[in-house]
Amino acid sequence: MASSQPRVTILLSTYNGARYLQEQLDSLLDQTHKNWVLYWRDDGSTDGTVEVLRAFAEQVGQQLFVESPSSGPHLGAAASFLTLLREQKDNGPVAFADQDDVWLPEKLARAMAWLRQTDAEPALYCARQYLVDEHLRGARLSALHGEAPAFPACLTQNIANGNTLVLNGQAAALVASANMPDGSVHDWWSYIVVSAAGGRILFDPQPQVLYRLHKENLIGRAHPLPWRALAALRRGPAIYMTMMGRHTDHLMAQPGRLSPQARQDLRLIQSGLRGGLLNRLNALRCRRFRRRTWLENLLFSYWFITNAPALPSATAALPGKQAALPS
Hints:
The chain is of the alpha/beta class. It has 2 domains: 2-212, Spore Coat Polysaccharide Biosynthesis Protein SpsA, Chain A (Alpha-Beta Complex), CATH 3.90.550; 225-322, no CATH class. It is 38% helix and 13% strand. The chain contains 11 helices and 11 strands. The strands form 2 sheets. The protein has a 7-stranded mixed beta sheet with strand order 3-2-1-4-9-6-10, with helices on both faces. The protein has a 4-stranded mixed beta sheet with strand order 5-11-7-8. Helix 9 (260-274) packs antiparallel against helix 10. The longest helix is centred in the last third of the chain and has 15 residues, at 238-252. The protein is globular. Residues 310-326 have low confidence and may be disordered.
C-alpha cells in the first residue's frame, strides 16, 4: 500500500526534547499513510535527545530516519527547520514535525488528500489541533478558521501552526529559496511566502495533532483570548509592528516571488508602515488586511494607526510568535 502513496518528507528539528520525543516518534509509526521518510537535525541538545533519535533510527532503519549532516550546531528552531528544508533533494510534499507533540493516525493521509486538490500550484496545508497538557490530558480545540485567509492577512497573524503544516513540492521549493527575516519563525514565514505567491492555503477544521502545552514550549500558551489580548496590550506594539515591517521589506526585496495583487497590496501596506496617518488609514482599507476576530482586529487597527513607522533598522528583540498579537 505504501508504494502507491506519494512519498512525504518529514522534517524534525530537536533541542533538549528527550522527555517527550518518543511519543512523537511512535505516532509517526502509527500513520495510515506509510510512505514517508524523516530527516532530523539536532540543534545542540545537551540531554538524551540524540540517543533517543539514534535508537529510533536503529528500530525503523537508517533509510527511513536520516540524520542531517548539519546536525549539532545550535542555530535556533526556525533556522534549523529551514536548513533541513534546503538540504532536501526530493520534489515532493514536506511536513514539519515538532519534538513534543503527537500526530493522530490520519494526519498525513488527510494532508495528502487535501493537497491533491492543488497539484498545479503552490499549496500549504494546516489544521486545527487538540490543545493538551504535558500528560496529553484536557484536550480542547484550537481556533477554527473558516475560509483560510491568505494575503495580506498572513502579515497580521499566523494560522499555520508548524506541527500541522505540510507543503506540496512547489510550495516547499518556494519557501526553501526565500530569504527569511531575522526574528521570524519557519511556519509563519512559510504561510507568508506561499500566500504572497498566490498559492493556496488549505485549513483543515478536523484536528490532526495533540499539541502539548508545557512550560518548556518555545511557542504556545493555553490562555484564553481576552487574557492574551491583555498581555499583548501590556507588551505594546513595537515588536509586533517591527516584525510586520521586516516581513514586508523581505517580500518587497524578492518581487519575482509575488503575485501582481500581492505587489500592489504590499506597496500600500509599506506606505502605511513608513508614512503618516493618512497612509496608515489608506493601508487599512486594503482587502483582507485583517485579523480573525473583531477584538483582535480592533487592537491591530489601533496599533497600526498609532504606532510610529516601522523602519528596516529596528532592532527590538523578537522572541518568535509570543511577541505577536494572540494567534
